[in-house]
Design goal:
It is built from seven helices and 26 strands. The chain is of the alpha+beta class and about 375 residues long. The protein has a seven-stranded antiparallel β-sheet, with no helix packed on it. The termini are far apart. The protein binds manganese (II) ion (2 copies).
């Protein structure tokens, strides 16, 4: 480099330094950048939409913008109420029963059916486009969460049987169903959505398809999460997992219960392959999300709230309540993958860690060597 080149280079360095100081981003070194979207949504405060026989409310990218790939619906059904026969064109439906008892009827494109009771702690998985219905069978109100692998999903834009029949010419419906015009006139004139006609349905053993010879589905689309082993019981905190490994029908979604003892952390980690949707079943916690480029944000959640962590974003949870906290976590991939910060550090040579973190080797030796999902208080 000649003399002019050196001068220009040092001038450029000075300019870069001044520009860097003048335009040093406000979030540098801090935790929050105001332009970062909210990773939590106060779903607990959203009012329920009421029907005769049930209630519902929904959260997706329309009211929770960061949640681009997953939407959720909270629903209740009284005994004898039915969420009518319908399908979803744009998403699969994964569900968790919070309380009470439900009965699902699921029909495949091959005309096979599964009729099953799903109680508290139970799951179901309805593939995109398959016909289904849900009943509240009592005793008490059934409360459940529906999780869809499409952030724009809206419960109102599902394809309901009464909506279809009411908006098809009556003569066509009569021909299709083999009914008279007068009989067709008895059908609902608009979408029913939730219908309630007590009494509650009888035992499952007395319930069968209308037609004889209908085959049952080969593979079960319901799953009891409560029977799953409690993994990583560190300090009493654990998780129960239902990935496609445990629940094969749910090939592109995974769910888990995360149980955190007071003060305990779900250790810093990320998921290489999936977005994460969280619902607070009980208790409260803080969620820390790292979005790269110096951007991060801590959110506080309480029972009934929802959070969303985009694929690959670093995050951790910390129980802030006096008692245990249970979180339902759902991923839009059937393969559960996660990398813990501590595990990552443990797999690297000491020299790499000490050099990278700019600490003496004696300090890097103190870092954890074992993989841990939970860190007690
Ligand atoms: Mn549905
Ligand atoms: Mn996670």
């Amino acid at each position: 480099m000649n003399r002019l080149g050196v001068r220009l280079a040092s001038l450029a360095a000075v300019v870069a330094l001044v520009v860097g100081l003048l335009f040093r981003p406000a979030w540098a070194g801090g935790l929050t950048r105001s332009s970062l979207p909210a990773f939590s949504y106060p779903f607990s405060g959203l009012p329920l939409v009421r029907y005769d026989g049930g209630t519902t409310k929904q959260v997706g990218s329309y009211n929770f913008p960061v949640s681009t790939n997953i939407a959720g619906v909270y629903m209740t059904l009284e005994p004898g109420a039915i969420r009518e026969l319908h399908w979803h064109a744009m998403a699969a439906e994964w569900a968790y029963v919070i309380e009470g008892r439900t009965r699902i009827t699921l029909t495949s494109p091959e005309g096979e059916v599964q009729i099953a009771d799903v109680d508290q702690g139970g799951l179901w998985y309805f593939p995109r486009g398959w016909g289904h219905s849900i009943e509240g069978i009592g005793p008490g109100t059934a409360k459940f969460l529906l999780v869809f692998n499409n952030g724009a999903f809206k419960e109102g834009s599902t394809f309901s049987i009464t909506d279809w029949l009411a908006h098809t010419p009556a003569t066509w419906v009569a021909q299709n169903l083999g009914l008279t015009a007068k009989q067709v006139d008895q059908l609902p004139k608009e979408q029913v959505y939730i219908s309630r006609r007590p009494p509650a349905p009888g035992p499952l053993s007395d319930t069968k398809p209308r037609a004889a010879g209908v085959k049952p589905l080969n593979e079960s689309h319901v799953f009891d999460l409560t029977t799953q082993p409690k993994q990583e019981m560190r300090g009493g905190s654990f998780f129960q997992l239902a990935s496609a490994k445990q629940f094969p029908a749910s090939f592109n979604m995974t769910g888990a219960i995360l149980h955190l003892e007071p003060g305990a952390m779900r250790a810093m980690h990320w998921h290489p392959n999936a977005d994460e949707w969280q619902y607070v079943l009980n208790g409260s916690y803080d969620l820390s999300v790292f979005a790269s480029e110096g951007q991060a944000r801590v959110s506080s959640l309480k029972q009934g709230d929802v959070a969303y962590v985009p694929r690959g974003y670093g995050h951790a949870l910390r129980n802030t309540s006096k008692g245990p906290t249970d979180v339902l976590v759902v991923f839009n991939d059937g393969d559960y993958q996660s990398i813990n910060l501590n595990d990552w550090l443990a797999t690297n040579p000491t020299s790499v860690v000490a050099n990278n973190l700019q600490i003496p080797q004696s300090l890097s030796d103190q870092l954890p060597e074992a993989n841990t999902d939970f860190i007690p208080q």
